[in-house]
Write a structure and sequence with these properties.
With 326 residues, the chain is an alpha/beta fold. It contains ten helices and twelve strands. The strands form two sheets. It has an eight-stranded mixed beta sheet with strand order 6-7-8-3-9-10-12-11, with helices on both faces.
């Protein structure tokens, strides 16, 4: 792998202001993402996991500049991109594409499939005429769609087929990095497996990097190289797939893994039930944000915020505990 990561995110924060009163003054903020740092290398999959509402999708949208960030930095191939004005950002946009969660609303119902896939190619001036038609046909082949589908409309396809169209559109401009924002969560179980296998095959063939945002750890285990676990706007653990699933260090990661369904209902389980309500991102707890639900919390956790530290074999954990929990 290259010494320079393809994507580097440094202390990213995205706070949504809250306004109230007659004058509409800011009365507070939603701390959706509150100091997140990670890297994605070329050809690598990094999965960001956690419960819904903890800022995973906001991270992806902030990287894409769909949300203006509050503070922090985003670097692509060593070049800072979060502060670039529109005209300078445009050439870099074709390198970072997205596959959205909902395959139904993410496609223009008034466009034919061929036009949907061709649009980014045309927008970036990459091809025209017969060359454009050939590129669209090649992309249809790559994602497993029949070539005659180019003349049909999105409503004529199933959810899985629509997501294949979305993947073809993301590949069209020659992207290096694809952000998959819950890209399989709206699909049936068998279709999920097909899309995950497709993404894996495309990664091997094209050398793609994937930022895979999901709450489905069973899917993540089969797709990813590394995993970052988010809780209430912060990353609490980062490790390679095998290490994280075998020896989770953070109590929240352990609770998440204990909830993953297993094929054998008679197999012994050590299910960890988290007590209490999820704190509000408007007023997150002091110290460790997980201490209000953590079964192992002690006094230090309530007052001192843990930082991500190496706990061995490259595994990073934001926890005051000294030993893994696996």
């Amino acid at each position: 792998m290259s010494a320079i990561p393809l994507l580097e995110v440094r202390d990213l924060k995205k706070h949504f202001p809250l306004h109230g009163g007659l004058l509409g003054r800011q009365t507070g903020a939603v701390y959706a993402v509150d100091g997140v740092s990670f890297t994605v290398n070329k050809g690598e999959t990094l999965s960001i996991v956690g419960e819904s509402g903890f800022g995973k999708s906001t991270v992806g949208k902030a990287i894409l500049r769909l949300y203006p960030i509050t503070s922090g930095e985003v670097h692509l191939d060593g070049q800072r991109i979060d502060n670039l004005p529109g005209p300078h950002l445009r050439p870099l946009r074709q390198r970072v594409q997205v596959v959205f969660q909902d395959p139904f609303s993410s496609l223009n119902p008034r466009q034919r499939v061929g036009d949907i896939i061709a649009e980014p190619i045309v927008n970036f001036g990459l091809a025209s005429g017969s060359e454009l038609e050939d590129r669209v046909a090649g992309l249809m082949d790559k994602v497993g769609l029949p070539r005659d589908a180019v003349k049909r409309y999105p409503h004529e396809f199933s959810g899985g087929q629509r997501q294949r169209i979305g993947i073809a559109r993301a590949l069209a401009p020659g992207a290096d990095l694809i952000i998959c924002d819950e890209a399989v969560s709206a699909l049936d179980v068998s279709v999920k497996a097909q899309i995950v296998n497709l993404l894996s095959d495309l990664q091997d063939e094209l050398g793609l990097a994937l930022l895979f945002i999901s709450h489905d750890l069973a899917i993540v285990e089969h797709l990813t190289h590394r995993v970052a676990v988010m809780y209430l706007g912060k990353i609490v653990e980062v490790a390679d797939r095998r290490t994280l699933f075998a020896t989770p260090h953070h109590p929240y990661t352990r609770a998440l893994l204990s909830a993953v369904p297993v094929p054998d209902p008679t197999a012994p389980r050590n299910r960890i039930i988290l007590r209490g309500d999820v704190p509000s991102p408007i007023n997150p707890p002091s110290g460790c944000r997980f201490h209000t639900r953590c079964p192992l919390a002690h006094d230090r956790c309530k007052v001192e915020e843990p930082v991500l530290r190496d706990v061995g074999q490259g595994q990073m954990s934001a926890c005051h505990l000294d030993t893994p929990l696996g």
